[in-house]
Amino acid sequence: MLADPTLSRRRILTGTALIAGVVIEIAGWATVPPQDNLESATYLAALGGSPGRAQLSAILLSLGWAVLALGLVGALSLLRGTRGAILTTAGAVIAALGMISVSGQVYSDFYKIALHQGLPVADAVRVYESAEGLGGTSAWVVTGFLLFPALLLMLAGFARAGILGWWAPALYGAATVGFFLTPPVGWIPTAVLAVMFVPLIVLGVRAYSRAGSAVVAAEPAPAPN
């Protein structure tokens, strides 16, 4: 069987997107301005008090999530059979949608900086909390949080398909629990996030390793639907 050059290129792009997305995302978390708690006034002060750093972090976080979303969709090209396909596809699509949602949410950081710099603290907090209390905002946040269980589903699918070991969903699941138990910002959540994304780095490496023409040519054709 002849190798499919399109599939090879897709896997190279997938590996690049996954690895680059993880690096950019971790850099975004590492540059989030420090804050002691999640109180509205503290949060706005952290962003408004370090506007340059906050803008850099927002740009990196938004770009990182968007690139990762592309990588997840591209990773479906690694599937060459039905084993684990439903889990993987459902998880990748839902996680990609969640990442796109979070990528868009980060844009609001620029408005939070302007609120802190342009209004008295009490007024800035009132406007911020009013916006956060809108039903549409809550729905958007929920959509973003779906990416975490969806990634677990996707990794379980890749493990079932034999592309990753079962260590991948286990490590990701444990690290995700730890991530939500850590302080809101700082080197600890950044380090935990890096551990969470190890399976995605490995998946990116697998995409590269399976992009060679000999590997692609030797693979069985996908089963017809």
Automatic annotation (TrEMBL):
The chain crosses the membrane at residues 12-32, 52-79, 86-107, 137-156, 163-181, 187-205. Keywords: Membrane, Transmembrane, Transmembrane helix. This is DUF4386 family protein. The lineage of its organism: Bacteria, Bacillati, Actinomycetota, Actinomycetes, Micromonosporales.
